[in-house]
Specification:
Number of strands: 12
Radius of gyration: 22 Å
Order of helices and strands: EEHHEHHEHEHEHEHEHEHEHEEH
Helix content: 40-55%
CATH superfamily of the largest domain: P-loop containing nucleotide triphosphate hydrolases
Strand order of the largest sheet: 1-2-7-6-8-5-9-10-11-12
Bound molecules: guanosine-5'-triphosphate, magnesium ion
Number of helices: 12
Distance between the termini: 54 Å
Shape: elongated
Oligomer: single chain
CATH class of the largest domain: Alpha Beta
Structural class: alpha/beta
Number of domains: 2
Protein backbone atom coordinates (compact mmCIF):
# COMPACT_ATOMS: atom_id res chain seq x y z
CA UNK A 1 0.00 0.00 0.00
CA UNK A 2 1.45 3.34 -1.00
CA UNK A 3 1.10 6.66 0.79
CA UNK A 4 1.53 10.13 -0.56
CA UNK A 5 0.82 13.63 0.49
CA UNK A 6 -1.08 16.08 -1.64
CA UNK A 7 -1.20 19.85 -1.52
CA UNK A 8 -4.55 21.39 -0.80
CA UNK A 9 -6.22 22.76 -3.89
CA UNK A 10 -9.15 25.05 -3.57
CA UNK A 11 -10.13 26.56 -6.84
CA UNK A 12 -12.93 25.21 -8.95
CA UNK A 13 -14.90 22.03 -8.53
CA UNK A 14 -13.13 19.12 -10.13
CA UNK A 15 -14.79 18.46 -13.41
CA UNK A 16 -15.27 15.10 -14.91
CA UNK A 17 -16.82 14.93 -18.27
CA UNK A 18 -15.60 11.50 -19.32
CA UNK A 19 -18.03 8.94 -20.46
CA UNK A 20 -18.94 6.33 -17.90
CA UNK A 21 -21.26 4.20 -19.97
CA UNK A 22 -20.71 0.49 -20.33
CA UNK A 23 -20.92 -2.61 -18.32
CA UNK A 24 -18.47 -4.86 -16.61
CA UNK A 25 -18.52 -8.39 -15.39
CA UNK A 26 -18.46 -9.00 -11.70
CA UNK A 27 -15.70 -11.35 -10.68
CA UNK A 28 -17.11 -14.38 -8.95
CA UNK A 29 -14.50 -14.52 -6.24
CA UNK A 30 -14.18 -12.15 -3.31
CA UNK A 31 -11.55 -9.45 -3.78
CA UNK A 32 -8.16 -9.44 -2.20
CA UNK A 33 -5.73 -9.21 -5.06
CA UNK A 34 -5.48 -5.52 -5.96
CA UNK A 35 -3.55 -3.20 -3.73
CA UNK A 36 -5.37 0.08 -3.27
CA UNK A 37 -3.28 3.12 -2.48
CA UNK A 38 -3.77 5.64 0.27
CA UNK A 39 -2.83 9.28 0.15
CA UNK A 40 -2.77 11.56 3.14
CA UNK A 41 -3.28 15.29 3.22
CA UNK A 42 -2.34 16.69 6.58
CA UNK A 43 -1.81 20.37 6.17
CA UNK A 44 -5.06 21.32 4.48
CA UNK A 45 -7.37 22.76 7.09
CA UNK A 46 -10.94 22.96 5.86
CA UNK A 47 -12.31 26.29 4.73
CA UNK A 48 -14.42 28.10 7.23
CA UNK A 49 -18.15 28.09 6.60
CA UNK A 50 -20.78 30.46 7.80
CA UNK A 51 -22.80 27.98 9.85
CA UNK A 52 -26.53 28.40 9.41
CA UNK A 53 -26.05 31.97 8.30
CA UNK A 54 -26.98 32.43 4.69
CA UNK A 55 -28.19 28.87 4.34
CA UNK A 56 -31.74 29.96 3.71
CA UNK A 57 -30.70 32.45 1.07
CA UNK A 58 -28.52 29.81 -0.54
CA UNK A 59 -31.47 27.40 -0.58
CA UNK A 60 -33.70 30.16 -1.88
CA UNK A 61 -31.19 31.01 -4.58
CA UNK A 62 -30.89 27.36 -5.58
CA UNK A 63 -34.60 26.97 -5.92
CA UNK A 64 -34.82 30.07 -8.07
CA UNK A 65 -35.63 28.22 -11.28
CA UNK A 66 -38.36 26.14 -9.69
CA UNK A 67 -39.69 29.08 -7.75
CA UNK A 68 -39.79 31.35 -10.75
CA UNK A 69 -41.82 28.86 -12.71
CA UNK A 70 -44.11 28.25 -9.80
CA UNK A 71 -44.54 31.78 -8.54
CA UNK A 72 -45.05 33.27 -11.93
CA UNK A 73 -47.58 30.60 -12.69
CA UNK A 74 -49.49 31.00 -9.47
CA UNK A 75 -49.32 34.78 -9.65
CA UNK A 76 -50.95 34.53 -13.07
CA UNK A 77 -54.03 33.24 -11.32
CA UNK A 78 -54.40 36.58 -9.57
CA UNK A 79 -54.75 39.04 -12.40
CA UNK A 80 -56.95 41.40 -10.44
CA UNK A 81 -57.14 42.04 -6.72
CA UNK A 82 -57.90 38.66 -5.25
CA UNK A 83 -59.65 35.74 -6.85
CA UNK A 84 -62.66 33.63 -6.00
CA UNK A 85 -61.72 30.10 -5.02
CA UNK A 86 -64.02 28.00 -7.19
CA UNK A 87 -63.62 24.90 -9.33
CA UNK A 88 -61.92 26.87 -12.11
CA UNK A 89 -59.39 28.34 -9.74
CA UNK A 90 -58.69 24.98 -8.10
CA UNK A 91 -58.23 23.31 -11.48
CA UNK A 92 -55.80 25.99 -12.64
CA UNK A 93 -53.88 25.86 -9.38
CA UNK A 94 -53.51 22.10 -9.72
CA UNK A 95 -52.24 22.39 -13.30
CA UNK A 96 -49.61 24.90 -12.24
CA UNK A 97 -48.43 22.90 -9.26
CA UNK A 98 -47.72 19.78 -11.27
CA UNK A 99 -45.44 21.75 -13.60
CA UNK A 100 -42.82 21.64 -10.85
CA UNK A 101 -42.83 17.85 -11.15
CA UNK A 102 -44.35 17.49 -7.71
CA UNK A 103 -46.67 14.87 -9.18
CA UNK A 104 -50.42 14.47 -8.95
CA UNK A 105 -50.58 13.13 -5.39
CA UNK A 106 -48.96 16.13 -3.66
CA UNK A 107 -50.65 18.60 -6.04
CA UNK A 108 -54.04 17.09 -5.17
CA UNK A 109 -53.28 17.31 -1.46
CA UNK A 110 -52.37 20.99 -1.78
CA UNK A 111 -55.39 21.74 -3.97
CA UNK A 112 -57.76 19.99 -1.56
CA UNK A 113 -56.29 21.84 1.39
CA UNK A 114 -56.78 25.17 -0.40
CA UNK A 115 -60.35 24.11 -1.27
CA UNK A 116 -61.11 23.18 2.32
CA UNK A 117 -59.88 26.47 3.68
CA UNK A 118 -60.94 28.95 1.02
CA UNK A 119 -63.70 27.61 -1.24
CA UNK A 120 -66.25 30.31 -2.01
CA UNK A 121 -64.00 33.08 -0.69
CA UNK A 122 -62.01 35.74 -2.48
CA UNK A 123 -58.34 35.22 -1.65
CA UNK A 124 -55.06 36.98 -2.28
CA UNK A 125 -51.83 35.52 -3.58
CA UNK A 126 -50.08 35.83 -0.20
CA UNK A 127 -52.74 33.80 1.60
CA UNK A 128 -52.55 31.04 -0.96
CA UNK A 129 -48.75 30.93 -0.90
CA UNK A 130 -48.73 30.75 2.87
CA UNK A 131 -51.18 27.86 2.90
CA UNK A 132 -49.30 26.02 0.19
CA UNK A 133 -46.02 26.50 2.04
CA UNK A 134 -47.49 25.05 5.25
CA UNK A 135 -48.99 22.07 3.44
CA UNK A 136 -45.74 21.42 1.59
CA UNK A 137 -43.78 21.47 4.81
CA UNK A 138 -46.23 19.01 6.32
CA UNK A 139 -45.84 16.64 3.39
CA UNK A 140 -42.05 16.83 3.58
CA UNK A 141 -41.81 15.93 7.26
CA UNK A 142 -39.45 13.08 7.94
CA UNK A 143 -37.75 11.58 10.93
CA UNK A 144 -34.23 12.90 10.54
CA UNK A 145 -31.77 14.06 7.94
CA UNK A 146 -28.82 13.18 10.14
CA UNK A 147 -26.30 10.62 8.96
CA UNK A 148 -26.84 7.46 11.03
CA UNK A 149 -23.59 7.21 12.91
CA UNK A 150 -22.39 3.79 13.98
CA UNK A 151 -21.88 3.31 17.70
CA UNK A 152 -18.31 2.28 17.10
CA UNK A 153 -16.00 3.81 14.51
CA UNK A 154 -16.01 3.87 11.56
CA UNK A 155 -19.38 4.76 10.11
CA UNK A 156 -19.40 3.52 6.53
CA UNK A 157 -21.35 5.37 3.84
CA UNK A 158 -21.79 3.87 0.39
CA UNK A 159 -22.85 6.25 -2.37
CA UNK A 160 -24.79 4.94 -5.37
CA UNK A 161 -26.80 6.18 -8.32
CA UNK A 162 -27.09 6.34 -12.10
CA UNK A 163 -24.40 7.82 -14.35
CA UNK A 164 -23.78 11.49 -13.87
CA UNK A 165 -26.34 11.99 -11.10
CA UNK A 166 -23.78 13.84 -8.96
CA UNK A 167 -22.32 11.08 -6.75
CA UNK A 168 -18.66 12.07 -6.73
CA UNK A 169 -19.34 15.79 -6.35
CA UNK A 170 -21.82 15.11 -3.55
CA UNK A 171 -19.23 12.93 -1.79
CA UNK A 172 -16.71 15.77 -1.99
CA UNK A 173 -19.14 18.27 -0.54
CA UNK A 174 -20.49 15.85 2.08
CA UNK A 175 -16.98 14.90 3.18
CA UNK A 176 -16.15 18.56 3.57
CA UNK A 177 -19.36 19.16 5.54
CA UNK A 178 -18.64 16.24 7.88
CA UNK A 179 -14.99 17.12 8.18
CA UNK A 180 -15.91 20.63 9.30
CA UNK A 181 -18.22 19.10 11.87
CA UNK A 182 -15.10 17.53 13.36
CA UNK A 183 -15.15 14.06 11.85
CA UNK A 184 -12.09 12.34 10.51
CA UNK A 185 -12.91 11.15 6.99
CA UNK A 186 -11.52 8.57 4.58
CA UNK A 187 -12.73 8.51 0.99
CA UNK A 188 -12.77 5.37 -1.14
CA UNK A 189 -12.54 5.71 -4.92
CA UNK A 190 -14.78 2.76 -5.70
CA UNK A 191 -15.41 3.91 -9.25
CA UNK A 192 -12.43 2.16 -10.78
CA UNK A 193 -14.09 1.95 -14.16
CA UNK A 194 -12.80 5.32 -15.33
CA UNK A 195 -9.37 6.67 -14.43
CA UNK A 196 -10.85 10.18 -14.42
CA UNK A 197 -13.23 9.22 -11.62
CA UNK A 198 -10.34 8.41 -9.29
CA UNK A 199 -8.63 11.63 -10.19
CA UNK A 200 -11.83 13.60 -9.57
CA UNK A 201 -12.24 12.18 -6.05
CA UNK A 202 -8.52 12.60 -5.33
CA UNK A 203 -8.84 16.32 -6.09
CA UNK A 204 -11.72 16.56 -3.63
CA UNK A 205 -9.67 14.76 -0.96
CA UNK A 206 -6.88 17.26 -1.52
CA UNK A 207 -9.24 20.18 -1.13
CA UNK A 208 -10.75 18.82 2.06
CA UNK A 209 -7.54 17.48 3.50
CA UNK A 210 -8.60 13.91 4.08
CA UNK A 211 -7.32 10.43 3.25
CA UNK A 212 -8.31 8.66 0.11
CA UNK A 213 -7.96 5.02 -0.89
CA UNK A 214 -7.68 4.36 -4.60
CA UNK A 215 -7.24 1.26 -6.73
CA UNK A 216 -5.75 0.63 -10.10
CA UNK A 217 -7.85 1.25 -13.18
CA UNK A 218 -10.49 -1.48 -13.45
CA UNK A 219 -9.55 -2.93 -10.08
CA UNK A 220 -12.38 -4.70 -8.30
CA UNK A 221 -14.46 -1.95 -6.64
CA UNK A 222 -15.23 -4.29 -3.75
CA UNK A 223 -11.51 -4.56 -3.09
CA UNK A 224 -11.16 -0.79 -2.94
CA UNK A 225 -14.20 -0.60 -0.65
CA UNK A 226 -12.70 -3.22 1.65
CA UNK A 227 -9.35 -1.44 1.76
CA UNK A 228 -11.10 1.86 2.46
CA UNK A 229 -12.87 0.45 5.50
CA UNK A 230 -9.67 -1.28 6.52
CA UNK A 231 -7.82 2.04 6.35
CA UNK A 232 -10.55 3.79 8.32
CA UNK A 233 -10.22 1.19 11.09
CA UNK A 234 -6.43 1.41 11.02
CA UNK A 235 -6.24 5.19 11.40
CA UNK A 236 -9.30 5.54 13.66
CA UNK A 237 -11.32 7.51 11.14
CA UNK A 238 -14.89 8.37 12.08
CA UNK A 239 -16.40 8.02 8.64
CA UNK A 240 -15.52 6.21 5.42
CA UNK A 241 -17.36 7.36 2.29
CA UNK A 242 -17.16 5.09 -0.73
CA UNK A 243 -17.82 6.24 -4.28
CA UNK A 244 -19.22 3.84 -6.87
CA UNK A 245 -19.50 3.91 -10.64
CA UNK A 246 -22.79 5.02 -12.13
CA UNK A 247 -25.19 2.21 -13.02
CA UNK A 248 -28.78 1.50 -13.90
CA UNK A 249 -30.91 -0.64 -11.68
CA UNK A 250 -31.64 -2.76 -14.76
CA UNK A 251 -27.97 -3.74 -15.18
CA UNK A 252 -28.11 -6.91 -13.17
CA UNK A 253 -24.38 -7.57 -13.14
CA UNK A 254 -23.64 -4.07 -11.88
CA UNK A 255 -26.30 -4.30 -9.21
CA UNK A 256 -24.68 -7.57 -8.13
CA UNK A 257 -21.43 -5.69 -7.94
CA UNK A 258 -23.04 -3.37 -5.36
CA UNK A 259 -24.14 -6.44 -3.41
CA UNK A 260 -20.61 -7.70 -3.43
CA UNK A 261 -19.31 -4.34 -2.19
CA UNK A 262 -21.79 -4.47 0.68
CA UNK A 263 -20.87 -8.05 1.54
CA UNK A 264 -17.19 -7.33 1.55
CA UNK A 265 -17.53 -4.19 3.67
CA UNK A 266 -19.56 -6.10 6.26
CA UNK A 267 -16.75 -8.62 6.56
CA UNK A 268 -14.60 -5.85 7.96
CA UNK A 269 -17.23 -3.99 10.01
CA UNK A 270 -20.23 -6.12 10.99
CA UNK A 271 -23.15 -3.75 10.51
CA UNK A 272 -21.62 -1.74 7.64
CA UNK A 273 -22.57 -0.02 5.43
CA UNK A 274 -24.47 2.15 7.89
CA UNK A 275 -25.79 4.38 5.15
CA UNK A 276 -26.35 3.72 1.47
CA UNK A 277 -27.04 7.11 -0.04
CA UNK A 278 -28.78 7.27 -3.36
CA UNK A 279 -27.82 10.38 -5.32
CA UNK A 280 -30.61 11.63 -7.57
CA UNK A 281 -30.40 14.35 -10.17
CA UNK A 282 -33.07 16.97 -9.46
CA UNK A 283 -32.96 18.13 -13.07
CA UNK A 284 -34.33 14.71 -14.04
CA UNK A 285 -37.64 15.58 -12.38
CA UNK A 286 -40.05 12.64 -12.47
CA UNK A 287 -37.33 10.44 -14.01
CA UNK A 288 -35.53 10.71 -10.70
CA UNK A 289 -38.51 8.89 -9.20
CA UNK A 290 -38.10 5.84 -11.39
CA UNK A 291 -34.37 5.85 -10.62
CA UNK A 292 -35.18 5.91 -6.93
CA UNK A 293 -37.69 3.11 -7.26
CA UNK A 294 -35.24 0.64 -8.77
CA UNK A 295 -32.30 1.53 -6.62
CA UNK A 296 -33.95 1.80 -3.25
CA UNK A 297 -34.92 -1.85 -3.39
CA UNK A 298 -31.94 -3.32 -5.20
CA UNK A 299 -29.22 -1.49 -3.29
CA UNK A 300 -30.83 -1.29 0.15
CA UNK A 301 -30.68 2.49 0.20
CA UNK A 302 -31.12 4.32 3.49
CA UNK A 303 -31.33 7.91 2.31
CA UNK A 304 -31.36 10.26 -0.64
CA UNK A 305 -29.09 13.07 -1.71
CA UNK A 306 -30.90 15.27 -4.19
CA UNK A 307 -28.17 16.88 -6.30
CA UNK A 308 -28.36 19.81 -8.72
CA UNK A 309 -31.38 21.49 -7.17
CA UNK A 310 -29.84 24.76 -8.30
CA UNK A 311 -29.96 23.74 -11.95
CA UNK A 312 -33.47 22.40 -11.82
CA UNK A 313 -36.85 23.96 -12.45
CA UNK A 314 -38.29 20.73 -11.10
CA UNK A 315 -37.41 21.08 -7.43
CA UNK A 316 -40.96 20.03 -6.60
CA UNK A 317 -39.80 16.48 -7.23
CA UNK A 318 -38.81 16.27 -3.56
CA UNK A 319 -42.51 15.92 -2.75
CA UNK A 320 -43.18 12.67 -4.65
CA UNK A 321 -39.81 11.35 -3.49
CA UNK A 322 -40.97 11.79 0.08
CA UNK A 323 -44.48 10.65 -0.76
CA UNK A 324 -43.53 7.42 -2.51
CA UNK A 325 -40.45 6.25 -0.68
CA UNK A 326 -39.77 5.50 2.90
CA UNK A 327 -36.34 7.03 2.41
CA UNK A 328 -35.49 10.33 4.05
CA UNK A 329 -33.94 13.07 1.92
CA UNK A 330 -30.71 13.72 3.83
CA UNK A 331 -28.90 16.31 1.77
CA UNK A 332 -29.52 18.57 -1.18
CA UNK A 333 -26.91 19.72 -3.68
CA UNK A 334 -27.04 23.45 -4.29
CA UNK A 335 -24.20 23.93 -6.76
CA UNK A 336 -20.75 22.70 -7.77
CA UNK A 337 -18.79 24.52 -5.08
CA UNK A 338 -17.41 22.83 -1.98
CA UNK A 339 -19.96 24.45 0.34
CA UNK A 340 -22.91 23.93 -1.97
CA UNK A 341 -24.63 21.25 0.06
CA UNK A 342 -27.18 21.47 2.85
CA UNK A 343 -28.82 19.04 5.17
CA UNK A 344 -32.43 18.75 4.09
CA UNK A 345 -34.76 20.84 6.21
CA UNK A 346 -38.46 20.57 5.24
CA UNK A 347 -39.43 23.93 6.74
CA UNK A 348 -36.58 25.78 5.07
CA UNK A 349 -37.15 24.00 1.80
CA UNK A 350 -40.89 24.74 1.69
CA UNK A 351 -40.29 28.36 2.61
CA UNK A 352 -37.58 28.76 -0.02
CA UNK A 353 -39.74 27.06 -2.64
CA UNK A 354 -42.59 29.51 -2.29
CA UNK A 355 -40.73 32.63 -1.16
CA UNK A 356 -41.69 35.57 -3.33
CA UNK A 357 -38.71 36.78 -5.28
N1 LIG B 1 -25.10 22.77 -10.54
C1 LIG B 1 -24.78 21.64 -9.92
N2 LIG B 1 -24.00 20.76 -10.55
C2 LIG B 1 -23.70 19.61 -9.91
C3 LIG B 1 -24.18 19.32 -8.61
N3 LIG B 1 -23.71 18.09 -8.25
C4 LIG B 1 -22.98 17.65 -9.30
N4 LIG B 1 -22.97 18.56 -10.30
C5 LIG B 1 -22.32 18.45 -11.62
O1 LIG B 1 -22.87 17.33 -12.30
C6 LIG B 1 -21.86 16.70 -13.10
C7 LIG B 1 -21.78 15.24 -12.73
O2 LIG B 1 -21.37 15.14 -11.38
P1 LIG B 1 -20.53 13.92 -10.82
O3 LIG B 1 -20.34 14.16 -9.38
O4 LIG B 1 -19.33 13.66 -11.65
O5 LIG B 1 -21.59 12.77 -11.07
P2 LIG B 1 -21.39 11.20 -10.84
O6 LIG B 1 -22.70 10.68 -10.43
O7 LIG B 1 -20.24 10.95 -9.95
O8 LIG B 1 -21.05 10.73 -12.33
P3 LIG B 1 -20.48 9.30 -12.79
O9 LIG B 1 -19.38 8.95 -11.87
O10 LIG B 1 -20.05 9.54 -14.20
O11 LIG B 1 -21.64 8.33 -12.73
C8 LIG B 1 -20.57 17.46 -12.83
O12 LIG B 1 -20.37 18.40 -13.85
C9 LIG B 1 -20.84 18.15 -11.50
O13 LIG B 1 -20.07 19.32 -11.32
C10 LIG B 1 -25.01 20.29 -7.96
O14 LIG B 1 -25.52 20.15 -6.82
N5 LIG B 1 -25.28 21.43 -8.67
MG1 LIG C 1 -18.57 9.78 -10.19
Amino acid sequence: MAFWRSKKKNDSAPDDSSDSEGSRDVAASEPADETPQVSKEVDGAAESQSPGGGLFSKMRQSLQKTRRALNTDIRDLFKSEGRLVDEDFLGELFARLIRTDMGTGPAETIRDDVAKRFRGRVVHLEEILETITQQTQLMLQQESAEIQMSESKPTVILVVGVNGSGKTTSIGKLANHLSKAGHKIVLGAGDTFRAAAVEQLTIWAGRIGCDIVTGKHEADPASVAFQTVDKAVEIGADIAIIDTAGRLQTQTNLMQELDKIRRVISKKVDDAPHEVLLVLDATAGQNAISQARGFSEAAGCTGIVLAKLDGSAKGGVVLPIREQFQLPVKFVGLGEGIDDIAQFDPAMFAKALFAQS
